[in-house]
């Protein structure tokens, strides 16, 4: 697997360094993988030796063969699919193949123990190494041989026991070069086959007939074999970045120690930096290496580089380690392109199992020829008298430098923590890159105003032309204290400067184009004055008023998340994504037999399943946030120290770098003091009205012992703290809040919004469930205009009313003015031109009275929704939205405690005051009363005696179950009741749910609210005096959509239950009163529905006000009593009236069966008489009597 892994690493390095044709290298790796799998299959099939194999071995071999064959086929097929655009995805798949192969290669039970190498001093074991036996196992077949068998390998020893884990065990205790071979006794003749030439065995003297034993030692005979002297080795140590913070200041004093063969050297120590630039050449002389030249060229010894932190007192602290292999030049090779001089490469530094930075270096190994050092390339390059004997990296290897100008935008500092128990009062920011830097202006009073007075400063520095080799930029914040003292507050190293490089404006202007937005489908929805059409018999149409009172903000919300149950009628609604980015749900007519259902149009918000920052690159289009770190870094084994714990504040600003020699065009209005940061707003304090909307929370972590929580909202912004403790929601993990909060704050002092969810407790303090933090300042100043989302449609009334104090025309005019664009120019025919682009949209709007008037707001809004298409200054504007943010707990970092759906609007106080906040309070259920009157029951039963009664209840209200009286001694299977059930309930019309509030237990403090579907359950039972009642059948009616009742009992069939999709459906909330026959069904022994009866019922729905005006009693009671049913005045008791019972059995219930039996008996009697009289009759005929 090593060659395949190296190949994938090469592909990743090609992509990282932006070299050409990474897909070609990946195709080669996949081809090697496919061929390797085929080779393994052929070798495995040739090996027919089954001796010593258990059933587990044979089954595992089958599994391996099947998996390897599958991987080989997939790799071969994937090879043809590799393209430049899919290289990254294919690399992941190839890595999955190698991971699976590596898993298959590991034996579940090791049959051969591993090899342990111990280093012992004074009888004490001080270091060890463990070598897997499979790596040194010998086989005559090259493909089956261990990867390290018969090779000289470098092995690093580690500390044994518990001391070997953690930082103490990361340093190398010893490095040894060892030759290992493991094989069968019959293969012992090959155990030295891989040893380099020139070694002679020293054996013990043995007597005749004794077996051959391994040698006790090996001696290199330099007199007979030519010795290779590699006495010149050059290590080019240029720089490192993102090193581990080893000091309490959050910085380090790093130096590098390089080990090769039996020698080691160190670089100079650079103080207080995490991104050192050593620019140092280390030369190793008098290094002796033994072996064949070809072997050393192809597989040179490993170089070990360890990074340490120099401390004034005590020994140096280990920071990380990396390994490298040098490029080897033999004496007969020319020192020139393409292999020499070597190029600088980045090597990943590891500290234990985690990464700890990168090192930029190059390594070369040069063989001394017959002429000695005269054949070696000279060490030329710049000399530095101040550095003494330290040699710099030569010019051929040192990157080519160019002069760059780095402009720094100093905006402000945020959330600075105390340093040495003292508050930060007068901070300053120092910027440094490649030995050059600049300092910001001093903030005189951090509490009063944490922004800088001078915004832009710059400095020039020599940087490599290769952007991948740019050194990091260091940001340090110091606090200027009394008596000229400076205290380090925190630091940050910007490792990659590529995103801050100014690329220049795109000079290719976009072609003239027209974007047509046709809103006619929206206007058609309302059909003039909000009417819908209803089909009648004879294909005649009549107009009926459309009830739009149900449409509110929640209609938009549910339409956005596609859970609006009003629109879910067998997937009957149609969602069309219009050109504005929003979704318009069009009216569509769906036919169910003879009923047509119409769905009205609902405009939707954009609902983001994650934070808004992730969709808009953290709103760092021009203002960036850099975390400031202080303190020692944490390791994987140290869970108490994380990067978040080391954050001591933020620096807000930006960077812009470009070559000084670049010919940059300057506008006449170019402000030289602002450099490349033109047209940015001022950073003076500004008063803001922040309006926070919290919709709901989902999947909250339980906070009570009953597995639930009692959540409520807490808002903290600056010095303002709001706790909505009185409106906590009892026993809910998915609470629906529907709250809005207005807070007046001043930027930049109050710019971090914290929204928390607490668990209310009756006794003790409330528990924090989770919280989320928002940086409002970046949102406010972003070019994406995150202050108030841009809606997909403009309206002046209704649920979709425009809520921004600035109208679309004003917003568009301001954006064009700030971006120095030509426009907007409004023309006839619903056209608007901005720059060189034309947009079209409707120009009419309807007011509250239904009157239409001309407006340009739709035109402007169309341009805003397509602002990303505007050349040069265009970007995507934040739409009207709802964002979903994770809730985190400070004591449980990284573990999500739930999610919260919300959004934030911000309005400057110096502009037009916004309107009132949107009403997003949860919908209030409407009180209803349902009267169900049962008249007749027909049952399919075979028993003689029936004692019928009915159960009825609304789902979720089982405790309010109501029963009819018992129809005793039913002879015909028919039961007459004339009984009324009355169910009061609260109903949410828009969500089509019944709202029930009840206590979960008798010890509960308050009621819990549930929302359940509106379903009516009806059951029929056969009453028994001395045993349990017998269940006969049931039906459940969804009151929003259930089959229309049959007009007669004969038309009532089981298909009304089993085939609902083909039946005409009705809703009690629209039809109010429904009467008909419905089937009772039950499951038989084969778990299939069978018809067990039919019921005639009448359903009547009344609102709470109507029920109060015309009350009705339950059963047949007052008020509005019902008449008693017309039941037969008979009593069927067989022991009192046996003849009557027999008459009923014979004449009524089994009439036809009795007729059939009597007819059969008569036929049998006639046949018996015929057979009896036939012989005598025949005798008489024969005798002539």
Write up what this structure looks like:
The chain is an alpha+beta fold and 1185 residues long. The chain is 17% helix and 34% strand. The protein has 17 helices and 57 strands. The strands form 17 sheets. It has a six-stranded antiparallel sheet with strand order 51-50-49-45-57-56. Helix 3 packs antiparallel against helix 4, helix 11 (808-818) crosses helix 12 (857-865) and helix 16 packs across helix 17. The radius of gyration is 44 Å and the shape is extended. Mean pLDDT is 80; it is low at 223-229, 506-546, 563-601 and 941-945.
What structural keywords apply?
5-stranded mixed β-sheet; alpha+beta; 1185 residues; 17 helices; single chain
Gist of the model:
With 1185 residues, this protein is an alpha+beta fold. It has 17 helices and 57 strands. Residues 223-229, 506-546, 563-601 and 941-945 have low confidence and may be disordered.
């Amino acid at each position: 697997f090593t060659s395949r892994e190296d190949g994938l690493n090469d592909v990743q390095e090609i992509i990282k360094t932006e070299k050409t044709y990474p897909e070609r290298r990946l195709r080669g790796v996949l081809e090697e993988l496919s061929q390797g799998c085929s080779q393994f299959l052929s070798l495995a099939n040739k090996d027919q030796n089954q001796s010593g194999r258990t059933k587990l071995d044979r089954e595992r071999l089958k599994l391996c063969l099947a998996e390897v064959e599958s991987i080989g086929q997939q790799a071969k097929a994937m090879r043809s699919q590799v393209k430049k655009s899919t290289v990254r995805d294919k690399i992941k798949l190839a890595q999955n193949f190698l991971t699976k192969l590596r898993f298959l290669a590991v034996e579940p039970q090791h049959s051969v123990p591993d090899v342990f190498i111990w280093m012992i001093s004074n009888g004490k074991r001080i270091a060890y190494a463990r070598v897997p036996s499979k790596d040194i196992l010998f086989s005559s077949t090259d493909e089956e041989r261990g990867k390290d068998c018969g090779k000289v390998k470098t092995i690093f020893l580690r500390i044994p026991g518990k001391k070997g884990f953690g930082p103490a065990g990361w340093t190398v205790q010893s490095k040894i070069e060892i030759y290992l071979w493991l094989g069968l006794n019959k293969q012992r003749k090959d155990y030295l086959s891989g040893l380099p030439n020139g070694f002679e065995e020293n054996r013990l003297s043995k007597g005749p007939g004794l077996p051959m034993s391994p040698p006790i030692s090996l001696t290199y005979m330099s007199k007979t074999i030519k010795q290779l002297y590699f006495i010149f080795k050059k290590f080019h140590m240029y720089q490192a970045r993102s090193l581990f913070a080893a000091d309490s200041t959050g910085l380090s004093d790093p130096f590098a120690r390089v080990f090769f063969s039996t020698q080691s050297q160190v670089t100079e120590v650079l103080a207080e930096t995490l991104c050192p630039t050593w620019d140092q050449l280390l030369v190793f002389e008098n290094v002796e290496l033994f072996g064949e030249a070809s072997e050393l060229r192809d597989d040179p010894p490993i170089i070990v580089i360890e990074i340490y932190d120099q401390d004034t007192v005590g020994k140096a602290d280990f920071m990380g380690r990396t390994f490298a292999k040098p490029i080897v030049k033999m004496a007969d090779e020319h020192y020139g392109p393409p292999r020499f001089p070597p190029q600088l490469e980045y090597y990943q530094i590891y500290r234990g199992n985690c990464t700890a930075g990168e090192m930029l270096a190059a390594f070369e190994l040069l063989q001394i020829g017959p002429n000695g050092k005269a054949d070696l390339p000279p060490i030329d390059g710049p000399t530095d008298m101040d550095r003494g004997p330290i040699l710099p990296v030569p010019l051929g290897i040192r990157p080519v430098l160019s002069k760059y100008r780095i402009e720094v935008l100093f905006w402000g500092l945020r959330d600075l923590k105390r340093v040495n128990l003292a508050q930060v009062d007068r901070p300053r920011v120092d910027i440094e890159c490649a030995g050059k830097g600049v300092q910001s202006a001093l903030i005189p009073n951090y509490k009063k105003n944490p922004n800088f007075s001078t915004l832009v400063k710059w400095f020039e520095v020599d940087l490599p032309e290769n952007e991948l080799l740019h050194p990091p930029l260091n940001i340090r914040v110091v606090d200027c204290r009394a008596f000229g003292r400076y205290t380090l507050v925190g630091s940050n190293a910007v490792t990659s400067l590529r995103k801050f490089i100014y690329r220049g404006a795109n000079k290719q202007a976009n072609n003239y184009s027209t974007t047509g937005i046709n809103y006619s489908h929206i206007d058609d929805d309302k059909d003039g004055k909000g009417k819908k059409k209803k089909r009648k018999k004879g294909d005649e149409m009549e107009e009926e008023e459309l009830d739009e009172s149900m449409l509110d903000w929640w209609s938009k919300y549910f339409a956005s998340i596609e859970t609006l149950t009003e629109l879910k009628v067998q997937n009957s609604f149609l969602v069309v994504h219009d050109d504005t980015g929003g979704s318009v749900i069009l009216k569509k007519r769906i036919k169910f037999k003879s009923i047509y259902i119409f769905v009205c149009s609902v405009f939707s918000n954009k609902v983001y399943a994650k934070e808004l920052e992730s969709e808009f690159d953290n709103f760092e289009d021009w203002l960036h946030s850099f975390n400031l770190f202080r303190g020692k870094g944490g390791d994987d084994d140290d869970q108490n120290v994380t990067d978040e714990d080391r954050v001591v504040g933020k620096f807000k600003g930006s960077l812009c770098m470009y070559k000084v020699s670049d010919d940059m065009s300057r506008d006449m209005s170019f402000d030289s003091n602002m450099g490349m940061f033109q047209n940015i707003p001022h950073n003076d304090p500004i008063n803001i009205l922040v309006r926070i909307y919290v919709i709901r929370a989902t999947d909250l972590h339980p906070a009570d012992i009953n597995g639930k929580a009692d959540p409520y909202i807490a808002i903290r912004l600056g010095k303002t703290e709001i706790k909505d403790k009185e409106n906590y929601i009892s026993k809910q993990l998915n609470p629906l809040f529907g709250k809005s909060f207005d807070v007046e704050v001043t930027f930049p002092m109050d710019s971090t919004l914290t929204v928390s969810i607490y668990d209310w407790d009756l006794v003790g303090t409330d528990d924090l469930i989770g919280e989320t933090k928002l940086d409002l300042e970046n949102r406010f100043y972003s070019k994406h205009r995150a202050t108030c989302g841009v809606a997909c449609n403009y309206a002046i009334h209704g649920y979709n009313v425009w809520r921004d104090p600035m109208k679309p025309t004003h917003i568009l005019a301001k954006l064009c003015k700030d971006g120095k664009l030509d426009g907007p120019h409004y023309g006839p025919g619903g056209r608007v031109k901005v720059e060189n682009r034309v947009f079209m949209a409707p120009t009419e709007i309807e007011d509250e009275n239904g009157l239409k008037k001309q407006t340009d707001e739709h035109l402007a809004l169309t341009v805003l929704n397509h602002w990303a298409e505007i050349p040069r200054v265009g970007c995507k504007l934040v739409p009207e939205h709802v964002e979903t943010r994770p809730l985190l707990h400070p004591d449980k970092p990284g573990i999500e405690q739930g999610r919260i759906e919300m959004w934030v609007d911000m309005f400057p106080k110096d502009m037009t005051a916004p309107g009132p906040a949107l009403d997003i309070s949860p919908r209030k259920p409407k009180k209803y009363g349902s009267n169900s009157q049962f008249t007749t029951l027909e049952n399919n039963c075979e028993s003689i005696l029936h004692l019928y009664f009915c159960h009825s209840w609304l789902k979720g209200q089982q405790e309010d179950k109501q029963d009819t009286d018992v129809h005793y001694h039913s002879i015909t299977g028919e039961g007459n009741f004339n009984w009324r059930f009355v169910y009061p309930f609260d109903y949410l019309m828009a969500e089509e749910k019944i709202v029930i509030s009840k206590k979960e237990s008798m010890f509960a403090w308050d009621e819990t609210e549930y929302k359940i579907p509106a379903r009516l359950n009806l059951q029929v039972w056969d009453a028994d005096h001395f045993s349990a009642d017998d269940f006969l059948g049931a039906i459940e009616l969804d009151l929003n959509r259930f089959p229309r009742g049959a007009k007669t009992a004969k038309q009532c069939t089981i298909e009304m239950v089993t085939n609902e999709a083909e039946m005409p459906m009705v809703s009690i909330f629209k039809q109010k009163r429904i009467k008909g026959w419905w089937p009772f069904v039950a499951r038989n022994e084969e778990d299939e529905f069978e018809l067990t009866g039919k019921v005639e019922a009448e359903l009547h729905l009344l609102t709470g006000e109507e029920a109060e005006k015309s009350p009705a009693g339950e059963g047949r009671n007052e008020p509005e009593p019902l008449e008693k049913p017309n039941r037969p005045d008979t009593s069927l008791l067989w022991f009192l009236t046996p003849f009557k019972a027999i008459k009923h059995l014979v004449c009524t219930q089994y009439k036809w069966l009795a007729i059939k039996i009597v007819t059969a008996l008569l036929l049998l009697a006639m046949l018996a008489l015929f057979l009896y009289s036939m012989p005598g009759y025949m005798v008489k005929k024969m005798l002539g009597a």
